[in-house]
Amino acid sequence: MIKIDIEALERRYKANLINSLSGFKSLNLIGTCDEDGNTNLAIFNSVFHLGADPPLIGFISRPNSVPRHTIENIRKSSHYTINPVTKDNYQQAHQTSARYAQKISEFEACGLEYEYIKEFKVPFVKNSPIKIGVDFVREVPIMENDTILVIGQIVLLEVPDIALNQDGFLNLEQLGIVCGSSLDSYHLTEQISRLAYAKPNKS
Amino acid sequence: MIKIDIEALERRYKANLINSLSGFKSLNLIGTCDEDGNTNLAIFNSVFHLGADPPLIGFISRPNSVPRHTIENIRKSSHYTINPVTKDNYQQAHQTSARYAQKISEFEACGLEYEYIKEFKVPFVKNSPIKIGVDFVREVPIMENDTILVIGQIVLLEVPDIALNQDGFLNLEQLGIVCGSSLDSYHLTEQISRLAYAKPNKS
Q1: DSSP label at B63?
Q2: Tens of pLDDT along A51-98?
């Protein structure tokens, strides 16, 4: 074991290391539109569960030191889509993190087909196996580092019935959904087991 | 694909399904102490990266409909430890989610040895391969569902040098760290690859 003097670390090294510490992360593409219908797609490793009832989901938007098209579009249109990254599209998903100009759609630039579902105004990633349509609820500024917690409510949901267990558990692994670590590492998963609801006098 | 009518779902089914949607999750044991030095340990699947500089980390504390010893202790002592769950301790880690009484330490009740490091007042999980000591920064109420975002700053860090790459990337997989999905599923990972920093005209 080595003790790390965090403050003494070089900037890029520190980013790689500190980003490793929170563990494995979900990887999702967030789709948005501006007021003219121009689409945007960007990969996020910070989408997390906030609550089931109501169905709330959060993500962190990085500081506005450079333009952040995703949060700008969400403020304008109030809707977005969350599209899990899979083993089949993780390379294109990673490419969406490049700094494309505002007028460029990452759907086209990165080779990811889009798909609209019914009346929902923002496109989904066609080959992503779960379709999550979200209404913007609120943004919470994190003044300590100028990031923003974006809170949304899930209003549209389509899932493959083949992966949906009888108790509502959705088998992400069966769908080829991947996870990430640090800033740039992609991982498949292998289920160990599901464990029963824990009670004090039972193991 | 089937369209899900979320509002019509039975409560437990809904919890399993909505908890699946955010993707794979980090799994961490959070260690705390009350003012008398009584220790507490609880598993969380909502620890996430907030920023590298300063090194900030967040997690979500569930609603106070039942006593929440972790957040209560953090308010009292201002310090906590974050201990990644591994393939060797995930069963004991899961058991910490049982509702033990306030005076019971989950370290003892669940068979997880503790370890103190230097002057840091809160214990770490001895067999967890990464030691993260955190100072409480602030709590942010999420009034939409009475959860709380807890923000902390990493002030103590020890990692195994064998898993630390030259660029600061920490190999979680090599350390046997696991991830979770939905409420009760545990997964090993298998790295696909690390990808280069993305630029617009390069794939």
Answers
A1: P
A2: 999 999 999 999 877 778 999 999 999 999 999 999 999 999 999 999
- Distance in angstroms (rounded) separating the CA atoms of residues A172 and B38: 39
Q: B186, A192 in Cβ contact below 8 A? A: yes
List beta partners, residue A82: A30, A132
d(CA B49, CA A26): 12
Q: Contact, B90 vs B80, CB < 8 A?
A: no
Confidence of residue A49 (pLDDT cuts 50, 70, 90): very high
CA dihedral B102, B104, B110, B111 (to 10 degrees): 140
State the pLDDT at residue B63: 85
Which residue type sits at B59?
F
Chain A neighbours among B 25-54 (CB < 8 Å)? 25-28, 45-54
A57·B194 Cβ contact <8 A: no
Asked if B18 reaches chain A (Cβ–Cβ under 8 Å), the answer is: yes
Q: Token digits for A44?
A: 């996020």
What sign has the CA pseudo-torsion A38, A44, A46, A52? positive
Kindly report, residue by residue over A156-173, the tens digit of the pLDDT. 999 999 999 999 999 999
pLDDT at B203: 62
CB distance A143 to A129 below 8 Å: no
Could you say which residues of chain B have pLDDT below 70? Answer: 203
Residue of A21, A26, A97 to mutate, interface with B, max B Cβ within 10 Å: A21
Beta-carbon separation of B191 and A187 below 8 A: yes
Give B93→chain A minimum CA distance, Å: 10
Phi, psi for residue A140 in degrees, rounded to 5: -120, 115
Q: How far lies A193's CA from each of A25, A114, B1, B153, B179, in Å?
A: 19, 34, 25, 33, 11
Looking at residue A203, its pLDDT comes to 62
Contact B187 A182 (CB under 8 A): no
Model confidence pLDDT, tens digit, residues A29-42:
999 999 888 999 99
User: Closest residue of B to A155, CA-based?
Assistant: B6
